[in-house]
Amino acid sequence: MHSTSFVYFYSAWVHFHDHFTDNKRLLGEFAELVASRPERVPLVEYERLLEVGLELSGDPLIGFELGKAIQLHDYGALGYLVETSKDLQQAITSLLHYDAIVADIGLAVFTSDSDNAKLTWQPKTPLGKQAILRNMTAWVSAARQLLRSTLSPNQLHLSFSVCDQELQRLQTWFGCSVLQNCPENALWFPLDFLTMPVATVDSLMHEHIEQALAKSVSAFCDNHDLKTRVANLLAAKHSLAGVNQASIAKALNMSVRSMQRKLQIQHTSFRVLLDEERKLRFEQLIGNTRLLDIVDALGFTEQSALNKVCMKWYGKSPSKLK
């Protein structure tokens, strides 16, 4: 079940509570959830909160406003990890690697060429545009806070459409052109942004926080059966490169043989679960991602391996599926 951290959910709830006086519905519908402060909030509750915020505000870009208002501490421990990064590249790597702890609702992929870098974010399940707007806007808002700069991306791609007035609001704040009805949600920015230093770098603290977050990824899966735990660990990886049975078994604090045996009892295997995760990512990336980048993202070392699994999944080569 897809979910967000309570902190991420609560930051949106607080924003609505503080900005809208007519908030009886906000207080009533979410009172029990806010009072209990669960570690995770189901995606359906997060989406419902955004819908209530949309109705209270009457603002068709309320997700955009939420993204602008994001603070690094709204990401919990991940926010502190990002704050202590050396430069923007390390900060993005941290966000990609541990994004599922904050919100296990989408797949983020980083690619680059000789001049530009691209961050793509695709929902794991159909999402309303407010959740997408908050996520895409928060990427830029967080980067500006880290670098203490008003830097702007080269281009923003959105998978839905907005009216002319809304488009103007987005382009003014992002400082770039915004393309609508694209096959993916993506931010393009100059490659040299990656070497810009973070103002609050602290390498020792960064190392300690990352160790704690690595444990959190494992704990994130601990309340599920082994099949779900392995699937969640695979989903939490920003790239499947280098992922194997040994690394996943180690993250679960068990031997490879023990993991194999327990998965077999559940009528599955590591290979099957990895194959399912690869297929999911392939379907999210094939629309507008270079095949070489897909090969890397899926953890293959050669194009021929991708060709082989595509023939198994669809009876076609990847080039014919683009």
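Above is the first protein from milestone M3; the second protein from the same milestone is given next.
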Amino acid sequence: MDPLTFTFEDGRTTLADYVLYQIRQHSTCCGADNIYVELRITPEGTVESARAMTGRNDCYKQSVRDILLPLRWKVENFRTTRPIYYELRFSEECKGTAEDNVYKPIPVPQGVQVAAAQPPRTEPPAPKAEPTPEPPKPPAEPPTSTPEPPKATTQPIPVTPSLPGTSPTPKAEEKSQEEPPASPAPPAPKKKIERPSPPAPSEPARKGYQPGKEPPREAQPPNPPAVVGSLPSDSTPKPLPVQVPKKYQSTGEKRPPQDHLNSYANTSGPRYMEPDYINGPVAQALYLKQEYRKRGVCGLVHVLLEVAIDAQGNVRGYRILQANRPDAEIATPQVLAGMKYKPVPLPMVFYTEFKVDVDCQSDQRKTQLDTVPDYLATPEGKLIRPAVPKP
């Protein structure tokens, strides 16, 4: 068996095919199972041990062990025992008898060479060397006293000759001839400089305390004022005028003349000044549909309004400029009473329009709001174009 390709010498039969053939011929194991096997191969090519690391069917595990143990492996580069891992998958159909999944020992195949096993390399024994006769030993000589090596004698250091014109001092010559050179003295230890320690404070140190002039213990007279005398008239502070916004005062519900209602211009209006609804545009559309539906208004509702709100976003006044239906115009004041916008810095007045398709019945025909022109032309809105009938 080749440990690299897991095939036999014929080059076609794999290890999985051989194990499955033996299972079908010599055992009654059945069912589906996956077994991950660990094989320990020796340098001689034999299987030292075969161990199933995974699997749930004991019949498969024991049969696989009986099949793999007799195999011989090609071990060209094996110097020590090596582990080899292989996965086997089984899916055999059970016959429904009492012998299903009953383990039976699988015999070693006889007369069939499972795999070529290379014999271990043996080196020819080295020829034994013939013993050579030992030469005769010379006669032992009597021990003689070994001469001791001469002891080294210290010679005096010659005196350095004096410079020409000068005479050497006799004391220096005697010291140089008699006394040996003195070894250098070790350096003296450095003396520690003692610094005077500060006197111990009478009171314990306080956290955050910094040395300095102590504050007076008794109340001191106040410092004299910086300006002596009366202040000039122009230095008196005067209150600044604060512009308070005027509250919106409604003049009542007055319908503008008919010629004014139809005289709108296709220009950008104050749409960008409209505040945001408290819960967003989607919540505003759902609220309008629900409120108009409660008041019996169904279908397209298109109303142009002038609305005044306070800083908290509550509606404080309104004026209906145009409506597509009388019932929508009547229900709009009650719908405005429940609306609330996001807070703004100052009270404001803005123009807005409601354009919703209120569906009261499931089979009601829906209106395409994009085809209905707006009352106000804004930069964010679409251009007003006449609806083109579909062909």
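Note on the second protein: The chain is about 15% helix and 15% strand.
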